[in-house]
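G., the chain you wanted modeled:
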Amino acid sequence: MAPWTFVGRAEEARHLTDAATGATGRGLIIGGASGIGKSRLLRSVTEALDPARYPLVSVTGTAATAALPLASLAPALPGDLVISAQNGAGPNVVASHAGLVRWALDAVHRLGGGRPVVVAVDDAHLLDPLSAALVHHLARTRQATVIGTVRSGAPTPDPVRALWIDDLVDRVDLGPMTAGDTTELLEAVLGGPVEPRSAGRLWRLATGNTLLLRELVTAARAGGELVEAYGVWRWTGGFALTPTLTDVVDHRIGPLDPAVRDVLELVAFGAPIGLPLLVKATDSAAAEQAEERGLIEVTRDDRRTTVRLAHPLYGEVVRRRCPFTRARRLRADLAHLIEATGARRAGDALRIAAWRVDSDTATDPGRLLRAARSAFLGNDLPLAARLSRAALAAGGGFGATEVLATALFLTDRPGDALAALDDSPGGGRSDSPGDRPGDRTSGWPTRRVADRLRWSLLHRAVSYWGCFHGGAREAGTYPGHPHVRPIELSWTRALEALMRLHHGEPRAARRLAGEVLDEPASGPGARAVARAALAHLLAAGGAPARARAMVATIDTRNPYLGLAAELAHGTALVIAGDLAAIDALAGASDGDGVTVRAGYRAVLAAQAARLRGRLAAAGRLAAEACALLSPGRAYAALAHAERAHIAALCGDATLAQAALAEADAQRVPAMAVLDPWLEHARAWVAVALGEQAEGVAVLRRLATRLADDGFHGHELLAQLDLVRLGAAGDVARRVQWLAAYSDNALAETVTWYADAMARRDGPALLGAMERFQRLGMTLYAAEAAAAAVSLLRAVRSAAAGGAAEELAALLAACAGARTPALRVKQPALTNREREIALLAADGVASKEIAEQLFLSSRTVDNHLMRVYAKLGVSGRSELATALRALPDLAGGS
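Predicted structure as tokens:
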């Protein structure tokens, strides 16, 4: 791990530098909380000062030397003189404090030698009285510029406080680090990008405090909770409470008497807690003292007054230090207190259930099960699993098993989920005569047929998507049994529809989903699953607008159903090229509780960045997705394929090939619906390896398969890639047919582009460029512009100059892109023409060019006229731009 360097704080650093160098005419004191980064800011500024121009006196106040006269200034004074003065001995020592101050002032004066002296005082609130008086005198008499730091809220010597009170210096209080500064610091220390959710959680937990952030990172790394995968650092959320971290938090908390400790413990286990409840359960004076010391925060919202700990880490330390028996009692007390008030606040029932479980006082399986379902719908899957397990132990029945198994499945524990299902009453039994649905003699003596059906459906889902048992999609559930009603059969058909879709069997999926929606007895849950399958089919089939409308009818609060709906939604957005909508979906925060959903959204963000041509950002997002999704396998292949695709567009064949191999290794038949994205990546990896013909062949095979499946939306993207690789003449008519069945602006733009490329129509390609620009698809716009420039130059068109200018701007916007379509056919400039063109582009007059090259001015002008004609420009004003579009001349222009 690299040293903790100074980052961010640019405005504060500039202000402090201006003060130190005399630009403001007065000094500056930086205030702020402990660990906020004041000292590091001061050190970064003083280290950057030129010692030859600004002699520096660095002073640090410490508690250990606060009682010794002038001890803080000891490093700047002769050691033997200070020691003698402090001992009152020595032949040449002025023992009085006034004399010592006069001597020190002379020493500072001699140090300056006529130059402006800078006195930098770190932790000025800890200066000994004599040093504080000296610093005040230097600022008041303008013999030095005083800059420094003080801790907000700490007792400060009167001479130091007088610095800003008497308007001798400015004072600025340093706030917490921003989220952006925190991310920058983390990446500098860890030596690589940090996954945004991890950076955000660390920022919130450290509350922008650099010292706490450092200790958190150290503790997380020591505990193996901060790990690197695919070049991206990710924090799992856990950390070891190391002695150093504990000391830092203890120092902030300070000593606690028993009454204040009781307040902190109750808030630590119960926050947020109402102030009346806190006062009722503890001592009101102790609560006041805790607030006064900054240990708790009291906020008022409408008629409610709520108490929380002032810092999240206070809770970690207090809870871990609380004896088990007391923690158990406190949780039971909290549950009783909230229940006594009627538990009217949102989330009260969930908190009460968790406290009851943790205090071993939970007895009502119904309340536990309701709380587990609430946690599940709120995306808190670990809590849902804990509560449902407790509900099951209390006799909650199959409902508890269902929530538990689903929560385990969605947190990448499919084996545990199947074990929970098989351990449920009758769950693992064979279908013997006494164990058939409706039979009440054994196996499921108290279960309804619907419970057995739900067990079977969940078992199949976990087996198929969690353990990738393809045969699970084939298993029927008693279609002929008289006790199985149509409403229950609709669930079987809906689940099978989704499985068939994901297994690459769209016709069967479409038929089964249609049967569910056509059945009047189908329940809302089955209908939602069927709609999710049909929405994906519509998106892949080239009707993304209709797909999005169908997704909007699905209640996605259930995390499992939300995943299916979101995959359909994301597919629709990418096929439609709606980058703004992708940004909105990828940036949503409601999926943070489900890692798979967060990972898929990172893939979507990477795809949007790729379409925009921001390939560096796209590669980083794809790596983040790989880090998030690799623990499971369902979406991992998609993330690796996207990473391969992006690397290939950048011309990094080695990385592209490795990422594609990883995608193939992670691919599972249960997610064959993602295969089109893998094949797109495969084609571009072949191109990056110099095998463009193979890339074209891959795309042709993909397009044929997609046409057979009716996935015309995916096919349109494959045909677009074929156009980009020079096969427009073969596919333009097919593209036109596909666009006729599509309902989005991208399809129309692709048609225009394919037709223009097939006809080799330069002006029409400029029209395609503008259409791609309106969609935000900068890379495609650049490729259209590159083709237009080549064609317009070939016919010596006057529009070539403007096209070259557009191309230069687009190339700058998609830095790093290396695709065949971006290669502009260069005009055949002779060596002499190139030489003259470069000089003219740099503003050298024809006469000076002639003198440099020993030519006549007429010869230079004749060469320039030929260059203008070849490049399609009208004169010198357009020459530099046109040359920038030529790769081998760009660096020289």
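Residues 79-94, 428-447, 889-893 have pLDDT under 50 and may be disordered.

Shout if anything looks off.
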